[in-house]
């Protein structure tokens, strides 16, 4: 029996080493940035003990801005030549680049934290703490976070729920406050600041929730940092109620351990809105258009066909009417009325409400107990 156990352990170690050796080749080649933000959370603990993990960690340090944050849309594991390294170094003081968009900064803080835990190398700890302090500094007094900081102008200064930017930050800070791995190395003062930042963020969420005729609904993808009103971002991202960003906001609130009456009311209002605006009996149909391009359209489900409900990305603030928008900034009420590029280059429908409903049932039971 002992021989069998030893053989299993040897096989496991061999598999781990082989994986690490393959990683040394795979991670060095340049890839889309999404490969980095998807890969980083899935790396196992053993990986962080390898030379390749340290090489990537040094790249993370290289890309960290003077502000403490990181730029977005960078495939950080790529092996750089000297010229590329010099270009990265020359942009460290560019205040327009530090952001929480597209999971930038939160991804790097987590990677450095795991690397420090595995290696005990102090420079990774210092860089992670600098990144966390950047998040503290970037938070507005009203509790919101801008998409970019300290970028001074443009829609980048709005409170940003878009693509879960603010929620990603709050989830990381909540884990820090709760002394969860991989952040257990952090000092008590950081944990206290993290909890204070989360509390302020929750207040911002409550204050930005849109009301229709006195009833709580959901949130816009971005809100004005001064008035807290729904705000425009890119030309095709008009003030609206967001069926995409609001789902994870509600999930975050439902995960809070001791919800206040205000938080409970916020959740109930949002869930009722998701029920009210769900789109039934509609599905995507993919086809090749007359120009030979891959395209899709929305068609009715067949009789007897099981189709999950959908939610539009944007609804009108006044009457919850789904709308779509091209780069001309004009509202249209049928997806076929916008051009191929925006129709296929943006997510106009989603099924995020389903996870809200599932979590809500669990949350209600827990609330009663």
Automatic annotation (TrEMBL):
This is Pectate lyase. Residues 1-20 form the signal peptide. It comes from Caecibacteroides pullorum. Keywords: Lyase, Signal. It is an enzyme of class 4 (lyase). It holds the Pfam family Pec_lyase. GO terms for molecular function: pectate lyase activity. Its EC number is 4.2.2.2.
